[in-house]
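I hope you will forgive my troubling you with a question about protein structure. The matter concerns a single protein, recorded as an amino acid sequence and a row of backbone structure tokens. Please examine both parts with care and let me know of anything in them that strikes you as inconsistent. Thank you for your consideration; the sequence and its tokens are set out here:
***
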Amino acid sequence: MVTNNELNGRTFLLEIIISSPSFSQQNQGIIQRRGKFFLKVSYKRMGYEIRRIHRLGGKILNITATSILNNNPQPLSWWVEIYTDFPRCLYYFGPFDNDDEAHSHQAGYLEDLQQEGAENILVEIKQCQPLTLTEEW
């Protein structure tokens, strides 16, 4: 039997695809944008991350306990994830060796996006492996 304390110390790798329709000004049609990436989360944050993924229009393809991924010796890098409502985009900046390094760079990315007119900006530092660095919906 696994106790709650044992689960709290475990981490999981979520395989995620984000697929959202995007309006095209050129042909007045719908373009399907897709982005597949991996996100490492603790058991404690799993519920929050799953709800956030669904809110962003994402779908979880697979959840794997990192304890069974012994054949992958390289740890996931740290990334600055930035979501903006206008334009509606998800950006990943990185990779970084640790969360402190990612935190030290996030201000510059925020400043650039604000100067470009981005609105309603949300920032998170994550240990993940995005396959697409910019997703526009």
Residues 99-115 form the longest helix (17 residues).
